[in-house]
Specification:
The chain has 455 residues and is an alpha/beta fold. It has four domains: 4-156, Alpha-D-Glucose-1,6-Bisphosphate, subunit A, domain 3 (Alpha-D-Glucose-1,6-Bisphosphate, Chain A, domain 3), CATH 3.40.120; 178-257, Alpha-D-Glucose-1,6-Bisphosphate, Chain A, domain 3; 266-372, Alpha-D-Glucose-1,6-Bisphosphate, subunit A, domain 3 (Alpha-D-Glucose-1,6-Bisphosphate, Chain A, domain 3), CATH 3.40.120.10; 376-454, Alpha-D-phosphohexomutase, C-terminal domain (TATA-Binding Protein, 2-Layer Sandwich). The chain has helices at 4-8, 26-42, 59-72, 85-94, 126-139, 157-166, 190-198, 230-239, 266-280, 295-302, 314-324, 347-359, 365-369, 388-399, 440-454, and strands at residues 16-19, 48-53, 76-82, 99-102, 111-118, 122-123, 151-153, 179-184, 203-208, 243-247, 254-257, 285-289, 306-310, 328-330, 336-338, 344-345, 376-377, 381-384, 404-406, 411-414, 418-424, 430-437. Strands 1, 2, 3, 4, 5, 6 and 7 form a seven-stranded mixed sheet that branches. Strands 17, 18, 19, 20, 21 and 22 form a six-stranded antiparallel sheet that branches. Strand 14 (328-330) and strand 15 (336-338) form a beta hairpin.
Length: 455
């Protein structure tokens, strides 16, 4: 059994993550497997769990112990081996089974973790199951008196690729101009999935760091940090490539670099995908999170769609998509969710949308996206604070007499030609600030003012 204090350190709002050998051990994942089995029984979920794993040295051993925990409770396991997180979502969706993905995503090599899902790739977060699973781990689960479950193995990479490409028209990738694409897999799982996908496209691929290595010898597989994009930017310029793609460690997020070596604003990619999806299904609902550019809901409305604003976090977006029957959702953090993909996020699908649009355009990527970049943004600025709630209350008090404020997630303050959002991190004593304005001067002024209040 584990103490509440121990589990509080690793069971997060959306997944489970911690240091290998100290917090995430085979003993831990065995007990987690027993607790997950009990949770699935309570939920009347299918009696089989599909399990995927990333390339970290510890993932296979941890996944094996987890499968043993499931089996001890009479639950069967289907091991699909190496997989990206969206490949695990494909498995959970297409097989209609609950799933577990062993990955610490973009975290450094010392970490590992687990993402859990119900059948049909439905997310499990704190409010939808992780807290109950935590209680089972604290209380302990006795060995089942019934039959022991069995573990089998199944190969799904080819089926996964077929499904992704099947979401596009039959000639989407065989017509159009041939593109040169630089792909930085960061030694993560895109090094496994991207070659199988790109081999089916009309592209010339320049690979960077496709070798699977959970020690991340070249740079961290965290493309939201600009220092991890340096090699990709250089190679795009050197090769005179049409587009660059950067994936995080478990390949559920994708960031783009244009032909000039400039990072593409994820809000612009959200808008691009929204436009394509609305052509296919006019009048549909599309979700965007509250730190996305205000250009996103404007463009969705202009194209006849219905924009819905969500707080940050995949469990919120996926629930809102289910409740509203939305066809697509985009987060500024590089997560993109697709109604035709069980409302799950997929870095590969986001990349395919960008490649498809670019290949059928005569414009370079920077020009193609220019109309979608309407405003100036700060990007996310993180500041360590002693008490996030007190800091947010102070900022709110400083603005509430003069400006409209909403509290969907932290506080969002809306000015005449600017807005900013400040929200607390779920896992660290941080405040996260995002600012957007109509001019660089206004952006600098608002950003400086809010940061001084935080300080």
């Amino acid at each position: 059994m584990f103490t509440r204090e121990e589990l509080d350190k690793v069971i997060k709002a959306y997944d489970i993550r911690g240091l290998v050998d100290e917090q995430i051990t085979p003993e831990f994942t065995f007990v987690l497997g027993t607790a997950f089995a009990r949770f699935l029984m309570e939920e009347r979920e299918p009696g089989t769990v599909v399990i995927g794993e990333d390339m970290r040295p510890s993932s296979d051993e941890l996944a094996t112990a987890f499968a043993d925990g499931l089996n001890s409770q009479g639950i069967d396991a289907v091991r699909i081996g190496l997989a990206s997180t969206d490949m695990l979502y494909y498995a959970a969706g297409s097989l209609n089974l609950p799933g577990a993905m062993f990955t610490a995503s973009h975290n450094p090599a010392a970490y590992n973790g687990i993402k859990l899902a119900k059948s049909g790739a439905r997310p499990i977060g704190a409010e939808s199951g992780l807290l109950r699973i935590k209680e089972h781990m604290i209380n302990g689960i006795a060995m089942s008196a019934g039959p022991i479950g069995v573990t089998t193995h199944r190969e799904l990479l080819g089926d996964y690729v077929d499904f992704l490409l099947g979401l596009f028209g039959a000639d989407e990738f065989s017509t159009g101009r041939r593109l040169k694409v630089v792909v930085d897999a960061g030694n993560g799982m895109a090094g496994f999935t991207a070659p199988a996908i790109l081999a089916r496209l009309n592209v010339d691929v320049v690979p960077l760091y496709f070798e699977l290595d959970g020690n991340f010898p070249n740079h961290e597989a965290n493309p939201i940090d600009p220092k991890n994009l340096v090699d990709l930017v250089k190679r795009v310029k050197k090769e005179k490539a049409d587009i660059g793609l950067a994936f995080d460690g478990d390949a559920d997020r994708c960031f783009l670099v244009d032909e000039k070596g400039h990072l593409v604003n994820p809000s612009a990619l959200t808008a691009l995908i929204a436009i394509r999806e609305l052509k296919r299904r006019p009048g549909s609902t599309i979700i965007y999170n509250l730190i996305s550019s205000r250009a996103v809901p404007e463009i969705i409305t202009e194209r006849g769609g219905v924009p819905l604003r969500s707080r940050v976090g995949h469990s919120y977006i996926k629930k809102m998509m289910a409740d509203s029957n939305a066809i697509f959702g985009g987060e500024h953090s590089g997560h993109f969710y697709f109604g035709d993909f069980w409302r799950a996020d997929s870095g590969a699908l986001a990349a395919l949308f960008a490649i498809a649009e670019l290949s059928h355009s005569d414009l370079p990527l920077s020009s193609l996206l220019a109309p979608l970049n309407r405003y100036f943004a700060s990007g996310e600025i993180n500041t360590v604070v002693d008490d996030p709630k007190t800091s947010i209350d102070f900022i709110k008090a400083s603005f509430q007499s003069d400006y409209e404020i909403d509290e969907l997630d932290g506080i969002t303050v809306n000015g005449p030609d600017w807005w900013f959002n400040v929200r607390a991190s779920n896992t660290e004593p941080l405040l996260r600030l995002n600012v957007e304005a109509h001019s660089p001067e206004q952006l600098a002024q608002v950003q400086s003012q809010v940061l001084s209040l935080i300080g």
